[in-house]
Design a protein that fits this description.
Blueprint: E1 2-14, H1 18-29, E2 34-38, H2 51-55, H3 58-76, H4 92-116, E3 120-123, E4 125-130, E5 133-137, E6 143-154, E7 158-160, E8 173-175, E9 188-192, H5 196-207, E10 211-216, H6 227-239, E11 243-246, E12 249-256, E13 259-266, E14 269-275, E15 277-280, E16 284-286, E17 319-321, H7 333-347, E18 361-363, E19 368-373, H8 376-381, E20 386-392, H9 397-402, E21 407-414, E22 420-427, H10 430-442, H11 447-451, H12 462-474
Parallel strand pairs: 1-2, 1-6, 2-3, 6-17, 8-15, 9-10, 9-15, 10-11
Antiparallel strand pairs: 4-5, 5-6, 7-16, 12-13, 13-14, 18-19, 19-22, 20-21, 21-22
The structure holds nicotinamide-adenine-dinucleotide (NAD).
Residues 57-58, 163, 192-198, 215-218, 249-250, 281-284, 330-332, 362-364 line the site of nicotinamide-adenine-dinucleotide.
């Protein structure tokens, strides 16, 4: 193993997921000499920039969900449109190939941006040695070298959390990454965890024909989501055939005769399920194992999250942590991106801030769920005086014309000032509709501002307008 002294940079970014690549690009745009180190390899052993979000998360998931939605509408909705199709079947290999091609194309786009901005892109595993140096080891361990920088940005993301009662065997008991790479549709599928990941995966495989059972330890469904929306989601998903078992804590899972036996407990006792595959989607953990040498003295909490202040600064001068590594906000790609830009601009001496209060959340199921701001239950718990406007999508002309009638839009405003405090949507294109609400809240809009804004008709976003009008007309 050779050891050679390497270059020095203004900034080294460790990790090329959304937080890391955005930060590296912004640093370079601001004239900082930047390196980005990433160790993600695709199935062929090639570098694939973009982190979990691109390779094994949102993008891969949305690509497959789109295929699954098309398959389902051909099977169930086309007749209504007067379109007859026969002999429909699923070619999973082609579906995966399409998804992989999308991932590769987007990953190449990141590599091209790195090249354009003259960012040193290094395929290796990085370890923080101290506030100014990083050790890098090639994937084949053929070379180790040390890079130096005035500033180091940690952006190594997160990975699926292990569940000791359901050990991953990569064949029958799989994690969320593998669940986006199956080579056949499981006949009967169980998923541990009805969180964002569990629901997104369930939405894909259920539409492709798997009998899908979600086992969720909590008694309440989507407890951080507005409960009116969660209730609507529960109803819609159940009607779609997803079996949601709440208050069901998995206690063991083992392979037997090419199937998995899952044992779980609920208020009625212990039950057993036999399924063809079990997906563990019970949460994610920050990737901080071996991220820093002991002598670096990087402060982590008991769950491995990096300790940071409100400016993403760790306890080591010149070292920042962004994205899934910290507890500043949820594990969401666009939160990481914002922090990446924020830290780059901080380093360059520019003034910036991340507004964690107005951060949209999206669950990419069909229909989608999206929200921004506070939920009704949180506001009521705080004793806030509020008024609410809701509007069902099924009465809008656009929803009826497209047949995407499931869902509602809900606006919560302050009872006295009328300032919008939260917007919650379940429905087709909720992820796109929420952008208007985010912008309105960024500008401290009132619900009347929304009600007085002309919306194109007929559109789905007209439902947001109508929800605002219901508040206005209640006065
Ligand atoms: P999660 O924490 O949202 O959900 C995991 C669920 O598993 C929890 O509800 C938990 O109660 C349940 N669980 C844990 N152990 C269990 C057991 N033994 N039996 C039954 N249930 C059990 O975690 P996730 O869905 O894995 O997502 C991780 C993070 O990634 C979240 O912060 C999520 O927001 C983020 N993420 C976001 C997006 C997006 O923005 N669209 C997509 C993917 C992931």
């Amino acid at each position: 193993m050779s050891k050679k002294k390497a270059k020095s940079f203004d900034v080294i970014v460790i990790g090329a997921g959304p937080a890391g690549y955005s930060s590296a690009i912004r640093c370079a745009q601001l004239g900082l000499k930047t390196a980005c180190i990433d160790n993600w390899l695709d199935k062929k052993g090639q570098s694939s920039l973009g982190g979990t979000y691109l390779n094994a998360g949102c993008v891969a998931s949305i690509a497959l969900l789109e295929s699954a939605k098309i398959y389902q509408s051909i099977n169930y909705n086309l007749k209504e449109h007067g379109i007859q199709v026969e002999g429909v079947s699923v070619d999973i290999a082609q579906m995966m190939q399409r998804k992989n091609a999308i991932v590769s194309s987007l990953s190449r786009q990141i590599a091209d941006s790195f090249a354009h901005y003259k960012i040193d892109c290094i395929q290796a595993k990085a370890k923080l040695l101290n506030g100014h140096s990083v050790e890098i080891t090639q994937a084949d361990r053929s070379a180790v070298s040390v890079l130096e920088a005035k500033h180091i940005i940690l952006a190594t993301g997160s990975s699926p959390m292990d569940l000791s009662c359901a050990p991953i065997d990569n064949e029958f008991i799989i994690d969320s990454t593998m669940a986006l790479n199956l080579d056949a549709v499981p006949k009967r599928l169980a998923i541990i965890g009805a969180g964002v990941i569990g629901l997104e995966l369930a939405s894909i495989w259920n539409r492709l024909g798997s009998e899908t059972i979600l086992l969720e330890a909590q008694e309440s469904f989507l407890s951080l989501t507005d409960q009116q929306i969660a209730l609507e989601a529960y109803r819609i998903y159940s009607e779609q055939g997803l079996e949601l078992r709440l208050g069901a804590r998995v206690i063991s899972a083992r392979k037997s005769s090419k199937k998995v036996t899952v044992e779980y407990q609920d208020s009625d006792g212990t039950h057993a399920l036999r399924v063809d595959k079990l997906i563990v989607a019970s949460g994610r953990k920050p990737n901080t194992e071996n991220l820093a040498a002991a002598e670096a003295d990087l402060l982590l909490d008991e769950n491995g999250y990096v300790h940071v202040d409100e400016n993403c600064r760790t306890t080591l001068p010149g070292v920042y942590a962004i994205g899934d590594l910290t507890l500043l906000g949820p594990m969401i790609a666009h939160k990481g991106i914002e922090e990446g830009l924020f830290v780059a601009e901080q380093i360059a001496g520019l003034h910036n801030q991340v507004n964690y209060e107005i951060l949209p959340s999206v669950i990419f199921t069909a229909p989608e769920i999206a929200w921004v701001g506070q939920t009704e239950q949180a506001l009521r718990a705080m004793g806030e005086s509020i008024k609410i406007g809701t509007f069902p999508l099924n009465v809008t002309a656009r929803a009826q014309a497209t047949g995407q009638t499931e869902g509602i839009v809900k606006i919560i405003a302050h009872a006295d000032t009328d300032t919008i405090l939260g917007v919650h949507i379940i429905g087709s294109q909720a992820s796109e509709m929420i952008a208007e609400a985010v912008l309105a809240m960024e500008f401290s809009a009132s619900s009347e501002d929304l009600a007085r804004t002309i919306h194109a008709h007929p559109t789905l976003s007209k439902a947001l307008h109508s929800a605002a009008l219901t508040i206005k007309n209640k006065k």
